[in-house]
Amino acid sequence: MIVELISVGTEILLGNIVNTNTQYLAEKCALLGLSMYHQVTVGDNRERLSAALETALSRSDVVILTGGLGPTEDDLTKEVCAEVMGFELAEDAHTRERIEKYFKNSIYKDIPDNNWKQAMVPQGSTVLDNSNGTAPGLIMEKNGKTAILLPGPPNELKPLFTEQVFPYLQNRQPEVIRSQMIKICGYGESQVEDKLIDLINTQTNPTIATYAKTAEVHLRVTAKADNEEAAKNLLKPVVKEIKNRFENAVYTTKEEETLEMAVVRLLKKYELTVTTAESCTGGLIAGRLVNVPGASEVFREGFITYSNKAKRKYLDVSKGTLKKYGAVSEQTAKEMATGGVFATDADACIAVTGIAGPDAEGEKPVGLVYIACYMKDKVKVEEYHFKGNREKIREQSVVKALDFLRRSILSNYH
Amino acid sequence: MIVELISVGTEILLGNIVNTNTQYLAEKCALLGLSMYHQVTVGDNRERLSAALETALSRSDVVILTGGLGPTEDDLTKEVCAEVMGFELAEDAHTRERIEKYFKNSIYKDIPDNNWKQAMVPQGSTVLDNSNGTAPGLIMEKNGKTAILLPGPPNELKPLFTEQVFPYLQNRQPEVIRSQMIKICGYGESQVEDKLIDLINTQTNPTIATYAKTAEVHLRVTAKADNEEAAKNLLKPVVKEIKNRFENAVYTTKEEETLEMAVVRLLKKYELTVTTAESCTGGLIAGRLVNVPGASEVFREGFITYSNKAKRKYLDVSKGTLKKYGAVSEQTAKEMATGGVFATDADACIAVTGIAGPDAEGEKPVGLVYIACYMKDKVKVEEYHFKGNREKIREQSVVKALDFLRRSILSNYH
């Protein structure tokens, strides 16, 4: 089955946004074993969208269109698809009701007139409820061809795709495709590939694909077979071999589990609580922990100690240490982590101090970051030299801090 | 002049990488005032690349192709372009010499045989030296059409484009294009469009484009003219009119200024410091403030008080308030903000408490968020009902909190 992506939006053609939807959908389609030969972006323009859709329908079985489902006059995707594929638009009572409900719970109490446009759907299409916005997704089937329309905002598109479009496409695939995710922290992408080069080069079923993330590498092992059991049996030995090669650097094999979810899971498992003491990351580690629903069981309070004074006041970092070694030092990181545990009733503390830039501090270069972890009456510290701009350095610090906490739990309690 | 982008690479079709080159090139082309109507991605496949190029040359003046210039057999872009446009390939002595030099300075001393393929260039094309790799860029002109070939790795493509392709395209543009950004907080996208519908519908030069961001709307006003002054004169009255209509909701007109940068700028201007008291946002407001280089002047410390105990301990929220009104209440938010100022020497405190979900708390629904701001001996609170998942509710809370702080500074000090 051949699938093609059409992104609709002048903002993409103008370079105002990075088109991350395309990567997301392409990865999921690859996971489903679908063939993708074209990805196309056009603006909010009737003629060009119409032409792009006609071309796509002529060479592909399924066309996924993203964007252009908003309430404004510029938003044309639904109208153009209906015209090209020969559908009539009519108001959908169910969708109208959902829009009313959406605005009832919103800070904007008045529903702008143009929002009612979003309740119009092609008659005979399948409406996909959107829990995070007012534009529903749509599946339109005719003459053996399918158009799937999805809203552009990633936080609307992703859950809609995962929950409703993915199973729909999976049902239409004759072969069974199963894949297993393996998420790794602590190795770069080329290091991971080096360690797996023999497997990557010789394997055809299952295949191994690597995805580089900020300070993480994700591996996807994918097998095709006639039935689920056969696919799983193909996966099993390869996944086992990879896990053996990376040991504790594998933080999860669950598709949806993030690093912070893995950390919170381990803290809960060993009934531990953690606090955070952040300087250059300024609250982002705590912010990641609180991403996890139910984090309150393991995380109750955190410190953002950006100034030296705050490091002394809340974390009892000594004046002497700050003076002798500076705020960005192994010693300060250790005292921050220790102070965090003593200032609270937490079992552990993860502390970060570093230079995110843009300016270096004396002899200490931009990218120098110390991360300390206090756990079981011991404090350990790691020194990092990160590359990139301020944002990139802070992002990497957050990931490494979460992973340091994870590794500390494993080595102390596992 | 119409420009079209063709990205070449199976790794993009498989979703292994996000195509950031396209955004980069699209933004630069917009800045040059070039019209872009299509962006296309095809894999490393001779027939499909050939067809995509033919289509692009038929409807656009300039086609920029990225990727597929590497040394392997899969890399076909140069060969296909030469074939489609009728150029002969021949070895370029200058490029051969550069490749030799590149390997001399590299850790890999032996030059793989297939690298010599990269010294072959279409006869009559312009060779663009690549300082960061072995594949040169190429400009091929024939019959009024131009193909520009650039290597795929962003660290090779970007300097090559900025230093050599941008000036080349600028020279070919007869018109001058200038644009002005206007960033707005406090109105939804359709509300912004409603307020500007007369301008949007009647303006052709300058044009007004809206971009929805999380709890923000960005407007770009773009004018074309014969010279810079004329373009600026076209922009001025429209920008002034938009600013009048949105007043204080406009937080910046600077292209690169983010909301947190605007907040830090105002804090610095009035010599104010701020602290943060965060519950459901768990450090993300502080994290945003620390995004800004030099934030340490205005932000020294922050509290993450996720538990009730922490709210009492650090912010002196009273037991009675927590018991009577609950942690997510107007009263608790106010006491958090007040407590934050009294616990530190900051001039202001922004406090957030809310229910990010996934579960409601008793009668209080998911998405209910209170934001309080203490400033100049007064504390004010705002109640929000956000939609979306946990992540989206937290993101909106952060933006609204930063904007509340910004509005408070303006109303107290401006």
TrEMBL record, chains A, B:
InterPro entries: CinA, CinA-like_C, CinA_C, CinA_KH, Competence-induced_CinA, MoaB/Mog-like_dom_sf, MoaB/Mog_dom. Signal peptide: none annotated. Residues 4-172 form the MoaB/Mog domain. It comes from the Bacteria. Belongs to the CinA family. NCBIfam families: cinA_nterm, molyb_syn, PncC_domain, PRK00549.1. PANTHER family: NICOTINAMIDE-NUCLEOTIDE AMIDOHYDROLASE PNCC, NMN AMIDOHYDROLASE-LIKE PROTEIN YFAY. This is Putative competence-damage inducible protein. The lineage of its organism: Bacteria, Bacillati, Bacillota, Clostridia, Lachnospirales.
